[in-house]
Amino acid sequence: MTGLIDKRKEAELARSLLKGDEAAFEQFVAHFRQKIFQYMWLMCGQREDAEEVAQETLFKVFTKLRQLENPENVRAWVFRIARNECLMLRRKSVFAPLQELSLDELLPTSKQTGEGRKIEIADWSALPEDGVLRSELREEIERAIQALPEIYKSVVLLRDVEELSTEETARILDLSIDVVKARLHRGRLALRQTLDAYLKRPETGGYQQ
Amino acid sequence: MSEQHESADCQELFALLSEYLDLELPEEACAKMQAHFANCPPCVQFVESLRKTIQLVGRYHPGVVPQPLKDQSKERLRQAWERAQGF
Question: Which chain A residues in 189-208 lie under 8 Å from chain B, judged by CB atoms?
Answer without folding.
Answer: 189, 191-192, 195-196
